[in-house]
Structure formats: structure tokens, C-alpha cells
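Fill in residues.
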């Protein structure tokens, strides 16, 4: 039987990422028992102390055990934590030596959504790949440049260190772990019971590109604004560098540093974001929308669209367009 430790963090936390894993693995035990099989998990809520933690000023969670009393576990789950990143890391830093020690003695570790900030603060993600909520990608990259953030992924798994993408994608990681710890049959059973879409591997369709403008480079910010206003037109890197009287190589370097995107990537993402919004509400076909956002090459448009969203233009329209859904 595997021992699972769901941390009860200090500060603000997403209650569902504490309650969800606790109930999920206990439900799996119930399913196994009903099938005449042995329970697979012993799940406990683990705190730095035995003190209850209150979230959203309403919900109280009482740890079953403390890190000082729990000597051995098989899986540590780090829930999503909210609020100021530096502050929440400081509030929970006493967890870190225990998490590291448990991992060094064979335990696996999983972070859910923005719980990746706590996991990264332990240093355990250095040189590894991870994911987190796409909305927090820029903050994460700035705070942990030594981590390979793959913010389009739903799940990462590197040598027993797991991370999940944004919000409810943590359910997909839980299913992934059940398949690993129990079997595929039980994983499928849980997806049907909880109505989870199995084997999702990207959160790209959910990403809404708004552009990274929280920087101090005024010329780059003006270039971003120009791109966003004129995305239907053909915009080149040379045109932008001449517009702002900055050498091309220097401008490209500054743009990438400020926005985490190359100029070409930024132009593509602005165009594709506009196309996505049109696909969601318009009855126009793919070719019409392609021209509307400034593409003239159908293959290039479809290739770029799928690269950014993980779906073809038609797949995206079919998934999100209200007229298509109601048809």
C-alpha cells in the first residue's frame, strides 16, 4: 500500500487541490474494495504543525499528521498556492527540507498547478522540465530560469518528479498516477466516474495570449502595441527595427528578453489569438478567417495554428464555436 502525503500549506491555497487528491485516492480504494481487491493507498493530510489552516477565510483543513511525525511516505503532493509568490514560498519554506529528504529516500513528488512554485523553490526542478498554469508562465520563468518550463504541457514526469498544468488539469495527473500505481483499467474507471477526459497532453487550447508587457523597455512595448493594432498587415522585423531606429539584432535581443517571445513568434501569436476569438463566435470559414488575420498561405496558417493551440483550425472551431456546438 502506497502512502500519499497531501501537504496542507500555509497562506492562501486552492482548496480543491487539497481536497481533490485526498478524496480521489480514497475513492480509488473504495473502487478496488468493491472489485474484491485490496486498497492501494493510505492518504494523509500533512502539515508543518498540527494547527488547522483556514483558506478563503471560510474553509478549515486539519492535518492528520505533521512533517515531524511522518518519517516515510511514497508520494508528496504539493497543492496550488495563491497570493504573492515570494511570500507564499517564505511561509512554506519549512516544508522544503522534509520534501527533499523524502525524495532522497525514495518518495516521488508531484506539484499541482501553481504548486510548481513551491516545488521549484526546493531546487528539485533545476535542470528538469515542468509545467504550471499558463497564466503564471512569465512569473515562473523569471523566478526560476534554471527550470525548463513547458507551459503547454498537461503533465511532466521526470524521474519521479511530476507537475501538472493549470487549474483542473491536476485531475489528469491523478489519473496518470493511478495508472502507474494500480493499472490502466482503474485509470479508465476513474475517468468515467469523475468524467475526466483521459490522455490529455496539452493545455495549449486553453492559453489566451495577452503579451508580456510587465517590463521596462518602452520601445519594445510600443512595438508590441503596434503589432497588436496592425496584425492584419504584413509586419517584418526590419520594418519594426527601422521604425524604432534600433539595429535589427539588438532589437530582436531586447524584444526576446522583454517578452519571452521572438518578434516573429509574437506576431504569429497575436494573429492566432485573433483567429481563435473569431472561430469562437463567427460563422466564417477557415479561409475567410485566415485572410482576416493577415495570412495568405493556407498551409502556413494551419501549421502555425496547430503549433500554438495544439488543435487544427477546424478542430478548434468545432470545439469552441457556439453555432457549431448547437447545430
Amino acid at each position: 500500500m502506497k502512502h500519499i502525503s497531501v501537504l496542507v500549506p500555509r497562506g492562501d491555497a486552492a482548496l480543491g487541490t487539497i481536497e481533490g487528491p485526498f478524496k480521489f485516492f480514497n475513492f480509488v480504494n473504495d473502487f478496488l474494495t468493491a472489485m474484491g481487491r485490496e486498497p492501494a493507498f493510505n492518504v494523509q493530510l500533512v502539515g508543518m504543525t498540527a494547527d488547522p489552516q483556514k483558506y478563503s477565510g471560510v474553509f478549515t483543513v486539519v492535518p492528520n499528521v505533521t512533517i515531524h511525525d511522518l518519517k516515510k511516505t511514497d508520494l508528496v503532493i504539493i497543492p496550488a498556492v495563491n497570493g504573492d509568490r515570494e511570500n507564499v514560498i517564505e511561509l512554506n519554506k519549512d516544508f522544503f527540507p522534509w520534501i527533499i529528504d523524502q525524495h532522497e529516500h525514495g518518495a516521488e513528488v508531484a506539484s499541482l498547478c501553481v504548486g510548481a512554485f513551491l516545488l521549484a523553490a526546493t531546487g528539485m526542478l533545476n535542470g528538469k522540465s515542468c509545467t504550471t498554469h499558463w497564466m503564471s508562465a512569465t512569473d515562473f520563468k523569471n523566478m526560476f530560469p534554471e527550470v525548463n518550463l513547458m507551459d503547454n504541457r498537461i503533465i511532466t514526469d521526470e524521474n519521479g518528479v511530476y507537475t501538472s498544468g493549470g487549474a483542473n488539469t491536476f485531475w489528469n495527473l491523478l489519473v496518470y498516477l493511478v495508472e502507474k500505481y494500480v493499472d490502466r483499467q482503474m485509470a479508465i474507471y476513474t475517468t468515467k466516474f469523475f468524467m475526466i477526459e483521459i490522455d490529455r497532453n496539452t493545455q495549449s487550447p486553453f492559453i489566451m495570449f495577452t503579451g508580456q508587457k510587465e517590463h521596462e523597455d518602452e520601445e519594445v512595448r510600443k512595438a508590441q502595441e503596434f503589432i497588436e493594432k496592425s496584425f492584419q498587415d504584413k509586419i517584418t522585423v526590419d520594418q519594426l527595427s527601422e521604425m524604432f531606429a534600433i539595429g535589427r539584432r539588438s532589437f530582436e535581443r531586447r524584444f526576446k528578453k522583454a517578452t519571452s517571445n521572438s518578434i516573429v513568434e509574437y506576431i504569429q501569436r497575436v494573429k492566432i489569438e485573433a483567429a481563435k476569438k473569431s472561430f469562437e463566435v463567427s460563422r466564417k470559414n477557415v479561409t475567410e478567417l485566415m485572410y482576416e488575420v493577415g495570412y495568405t498561405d493556407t498551409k502556413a496558417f494551419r501549421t502555425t495554428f496547430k503549433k500554438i493551440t495544439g488543435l487544427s483550425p477546424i478542430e478548434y472551431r468545432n470545439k469552441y464555436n457556439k453555432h457549431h456546438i448547437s447545430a
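Residues 218-326 form a domain with the Arc Repressor Mutant, subunit A fold (CATH 1.10.10.60).
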